[in-house]
Write a structure and sequence with these properties.
three-stranded antiparallel sheet, 269 residues, 32% helix, alpha+beta
């Protein structure tokens, strides 16, 4: 089960609306004060035993790789976070997305820039930079730093010349959502802006007996798990639900293509 109750998430809901992925950084070091805030958040926000995060104050220069050679590679980030999961945990992917997005939003709240990276990093370099326990693997990483003031041409090509990314409609990700309770409709707007690998937006939601179920579409065989993408969206959903006065718990490890079920413990309208 996952929940953010009493986890100190002030500012995260506002952060999800302004978070943007960037691949080029200006090389400026993250301040010791901000690094300490991130470390404290890692210690405080511990909703799962399936996953954990290690903060690297000084990111290895060769941690990231490009799409082709250096093309599309993360460059200039002073720090990084490494997302680690237990291989034997049934909910490891969604737990990683949920946990990791919390730290991404905390970094955003501090004015820092990040970028979820699930495939274009060097696992060997990441493993050498952290101490893995038996049965653990590195599933994803994110740079942490200050974005470059200008967007280079290679990044514009990847992200559409700096234009806002298109988002699937609410009806696409949540068929029939217009008939849902108002609190649940609000959560879909938060899910809609969640990041995902290759901007695929695989999550699909439905209401079922007063609970909210998230699963994923069945298209393709992605290298980065769609369950991880769903975990990111799950955190967005819960933040929006709390803003509507609704708290609850995610019951995870559902059978594919379902991922988790949000069960409200206090209900709005």
């Amino acid at each position: 089960m996952l929940t953010i109750q009493n986890s100190g998430t002030d500012g995260w809901l506002a952060a999800l609306a302004v978070r943007r992925s960037r691949r080029r950084f200006d090389g400026t070091a993250v301040s010791p004060e901000d690094l300490q805030v991130l470390r404290e958040c890692i210690e405080r926000f511990r909703p799962t035993h399936s996953a954990r995060i290690v903060l690297l104050d000084d990111a290895p220069s060769d941690l990231f790789r490009g799409l082709v050679g250096s093309y599309g590679r993360i460059e200039g980030a002073s720090s990084a976070m490494v997302f680690i999961g237990r291989q034997d945990a049934q909910d490891v992917q969604e737990a990683l997305g949920y946990l990791g997005e919390g730290l991404v939003l905390e970094a955003t709240r501090l004015g820092l820039t990040t970028c979820w990276v699930g495939g274009l990093f060097k696992p060997g370099v990441a493993r050498e930079a952290v101490e893995l326990e038996p049965g653990e693997s590195v599933y994803a990483v994110t740079p942490v730093g200050h974005a470059a003031s200008t967007v280079p041409s290679s990044e514009r090509m990847i992200y559409g010349a700096g234009k806002p990314k298109s988002r699937k409609s609410l009806e696409d990700i949540a068929p029939g959502f217009s008939e849902w309770p108002s609190w649940a409709r609000s959560t879909m707007r938060a899910a809609q802006v969640a990041p995902s690998a290759m901007h695929r937006q695989p999550w699909r939601f439905r209401m079922e007996d007063g609970t909210l179920v998230v699963g994923y579409d069945g298209a393709g065989s992605p290298k980065v798990s769609k369950r991880l993408d769903c975990g990111i969206a799950m955190l967005h959903v819960e933040l929006a639900a709390q803003a509507e006065g609704v708290t609850g718990t995610w019951h995870t490890a559902l059978e594919n293509p379902d991922v988790a079920r949000f069960v409200p413990t206090s209900k709005g309208t």
